User: Fold this.
Amino acid sequence: MALDTGVTCWLMVSAVLVMLMTPGVGLFYGGLVRKKNFISMIALSFVSLALASIHWILIGYSLAFGPDVGGFVGNLDFAGLAGVSADAGAGTYPPLVFMVFQLFFAAVTITIVTSAVAERIKLSSFIVFCLVWLTVVYCPIAHWAWGGGWAQQMGLIDFAGGTAVEICSGFAALALALVIGRRAGFGEHALEPHNIPMALLGAALLWFGWFGFNAGSALALNSSAVMAFVNTNSAAAAGALAWMFASWYKGKPSSLGMVSGAIAGMVAITPAAGFVGPLVAVLIGVVAGIVCYSMMLVRISRKLDESLDAWAIHGMGGLWGTVATGFFAAAAVGGFSGLIEGNSSQFIINAIAAIAALLYAFMATYAIGLIIDVTIGLRVTEDEEYVGLDICQHGERA
Assistant:
């Protein structure tokens, strides 16, 4: 087919927007930790981006989007990008553009998981974890949802990554936090964020980049892209206000709460972005803000040191969004009907895929983390943790 320069340009711009989300996560997380670990958190995001880029070229893209093997993973036909052309493909855009667009999804997903190990992981151990996790966890789940795997064959609808990105990263973070254990002094001393404006800047970059994340996933310049674009902003705004008012009821409406709610809203609308209308997107965002805020309170009450809240926001928000997609999908919007239009099978399929992604991401990540911990060790020494990872891992000060 002839190259559609408009679509190709849109996908390239969307890829750049998604790429910006990875350092956005780094800035968001970096502002939430103590000053002595600020550089470490941002460095982990850049390390994630660099490792994911090379991994994706060598085997990652092929494992996720190569010809199906048993419904579980792709084969290695595209290893080293063999046969991935820069010329127009079946979608009127080059397969190579689709490859790099999806590369940045993989990068931001592993970056979200760094929430679980803030202020206590060895850089060398993270590098090993990142490469193994992308191979064993992310690529198979991405294949299930988008690459022709069992969930897609069954009929899962996941517009931009409720399973492969959000549920996968959130529950992986929960598992890894359980393996690595709490930070020294957690629950005994206040471990306050050192730079809230920096965290707000990171959240702003995430909001900005999410337009490419969701609208770009239409893989075309069409009504689905427009709907996803509008729904992304609608759900973000609704989530921000819902979290703000929920936290206001219990105390004061913090700025971090507002941006956390916005992220929760965008997480939840991600799988539904092109399948529902704006009013439903607002509803999904409101519920996400309340649910994710409540899950953060549960995490605090259980004294779980997953304190940057990837599980509460991405894991639980993605779970809600994926199930909500099976409930609210409207045939008039995206061509798929959900339970609210009488299609109970779509709701069941989405629920099954969500639970499968949850269980696999959690159990596989726990196993990977445990193996690394008992072999080379996941975390720095107590003295290094006291000094801070910026000095002991990077030799730098913020």
